[in-house]
Amino acid sequence: MDVGAPGEVTDEALPYGVFSTAERGPRVGALSAGTVIDLTPVLGDDVWAAPALNPFMALGPGAWADARGRLTDALARGDADAHRVPLADVTLHLPFAVGDYADFYSSRSHAENCGRILRPGTEPLTPNWRHMPVGYHGRAGTVVVSGTAVRRPCGQRRGAPGAGPEFGPSQMLDIEAEVGFVVGAPSDAPVATSAFADHVFGVVLLNDWSARDLQAWEAQPLGPFLGKSFATSVSAWVTPLAALEAARLPAPRQDPAPLPYLADTDGWALDLLLEVSLNGEAISRPPFSTMYWTPAQQLAHLTVNGASLRTGDLFGSGTVSGPSHDQWGSLLELTWGGRDGAFLADGDRVVITATAPSATGGRLRLGPVDGTVRAPA
To answer: Is residue 2 part of a domain?
Structure first.
């Protein structure tokens, strides 16, 4: 398998997706060298003929490793060449049926920026923030695949001083550049940080679209609701965790030390470099390596109360923001609450991309997430 020369950016993470052609309906494929490999004839298992990755993901880590090994061998022998479909000839679909969706708030830079913007003059971090990964439960039914247009939402927002609320289209439509983690193997018991890779199948890039004016009015006291639930975009390609071994980093130093169930001794911080483009211009390059809470800690916290995991569950990292302005992953930060710029306009196109180190010294390209803002209904 050609993974590229050192320093080169390649697609050879062999991510999985669901595609269809003019002749055949949705089925599972793998991305390789700008083509989609039809996995049903190459690997021969029934799970590849399904219109979602869920049947394959439910088989667990042993089956995931076996399939990746067989696919790598087939590529090396040239057995897959007759089953390549040009990327331009396929339609890409949501790669997995989403079970539940939760989203976290795990970048310290982002949390502190939001605190300073929204609560000036007060401590930017809430008292619980450094003790646990803070999150909220999202809406699985509005998770959409990359390329799907996102309609500007309507709702209530704060009116003029002394007046009641207004209703109408959001005037502060925003993006959040995130990394999403896709659950493969289910669980009815709490998942320890050390068991993260036994349950999480892979990674997608994620855009947690946010209507900041709707959110600001409704979020007291129960948190995000309509300001978040209208759309969440994810990549069409799921990068398996096995492709990211070279990207693993030790967990960051956390002060105070987390409670024992949150100790991440296996090192599931990840060296991913994101890029956010608005209408073709790069506006930010957030580093995932700066996240305060790791995905293993997020999953441990998500399940510690006995909440079950289902195949296809998705949890987002929260906005990825680094310490400098050019590393901030939302327009709320980049415009400092609208003071230094505008939020999204109808017709704006946002593309989030990312790369990760490969075992050969180059970098692997993760599947992008792309969305364009449509006018309100």
So the answer is: no
Residue appearing with tokens 């230094």: 340
CATH of the domain at 78: 2.30.30.230
Select which of 93, 110, 137, 199 is catalytic.
Answer: 110
Reference 219, options 314, 105, 112, 307; nearest CA is 105
Of 93, 115, 131, the residue at which a domain comes to its end is 93
Separation between Cα atoms, residue 200 and residue 349, nearest integer Å = 30
**Residue 4: predicted pLDDT:** 41
- Statement to judge: residues 209 and 310 lie in one domain: yes
Query: Is 301 a catalytic site residue?
Result: no
Whether residue 89 is found in the same domain as residue 120: no
Give the pLDDT confidence of 135-174 residue by residue, as tens digits.
999 999 999 999 999 999 999 999 999 999 999 999 999 9
Half-sphere exposure of 35 (CA within 13 A, CB side): 12
Distance CA 340, CA 177 (A): 19
CB atoms near residue 363 (< 10 Å): 23
